[in-house]
Amino acid sequence: MPNLSSFTQALHGGGARANQFQVTLGGAGASGLSGDFHFLCRSAQIPALTIGEVAVPYRGRTIYLAGDRTYDAWTVTILNDRNYSIRAFLESWMDDMSDIGGSTKTSALSSSIYYADATIKQLDRNDTPIRTYKLEGLWPTTIDAIDLSYDANDAIEEFGATFRFNWMTVGGEGTSSEGGSRSITLTAGLSYDMGP
Q: Do the beta carbons of residue 40 and residue 32 sit within 8 Å?
């Protein structure tokens, strides 16, 4: 029989909330980006983790082995301030990699110059980080259009930006007062710390 008390106890701290997060950009490529980014980033994602599969046929059966890790592109939605500060910075960042204008120049910058890092923090209800995802080797691939319309009243402009990154690290902060450390034991006897 379902037990509501057991369910609520398993949902530590009342569950993680999708609207409790903070995103920051930093590093060489984003060194001039306004600190307002973490306020004006309206939405983002915690990136998916994907490990490919290798199919090995053996006597009429197919055995699957773990393949290589891949990362999908990462997207954010940004509120546009009156000075276009974040959009202007992203446009300049992209211009440094490949000229936006009539020139055919491409930047002589090495990738280590235009790469940046992004940090996504899942927060608890007291704004304490409970999980941190750091995306490294990050650069913008797309800045979405901003729709303009005479009938768009009572709305702030927003636009999407898509980034590619090379790898990520994941960590639990361990400082949240809303839950303790947990671990999971797999059938092979391996034990993993799940963090707070």
A: no
